[in-house]
Amino acid sequence: MTTATRQEVLSLYRSIFRLARKWQAASGQMEDTMEEKQYILNEARTLFRKNKNLTDTDLIKQCIDECTARIEIGLHYQIPYPRPIHLPPMGLTPLRGRGLRTQEKLRKLSKPVYLMSHDEVS
């Protein structure tokens, strides 16, 4: 990891913690605010620890892009949770047939950047 990339990652990590400190739930309830703050902190710690040993610059860049997108979406919609995508199980139509493997591949390719670190839940 280059020095510039390391600084960018550390800057994102600090900005997430600053965001969590200032976070206010859209409902205005103190319980919701505390729960959402805790979610932000836990999610950041988990994902940063999971990816701390990455050495491939493309994967690091993808993780940085995902982090930035999730911060922007969270601020825009006032929710810290990732926005789910809704695709029916066999709803993607490939040109070469409707096989299960093809559908799984297309679903993986259609996953938005802000959900790359999350497993798909049906």
From TrEMBL:
InterPro entries: Complex1_LYR_dom, Complex1_LYR_LYRM1, LYRM1
GO cellular component, one term: mitochondrion
CDD domains to which the protein is assigned, alphabetical: Complex1_LYR_LYRM1
Complex 1 LYR protein domain location: 7-68
Family to which this protein belongs: Belongs to the complex I LYR family.
UniProt-recorded name of the protein: LYR motif-containing protein 1
Species in which this protein is naturally found: Heterocephalus glaber
Origin organism lineage: Eukaryota, Metazoa, Chordata, Craniata, Vertebrata
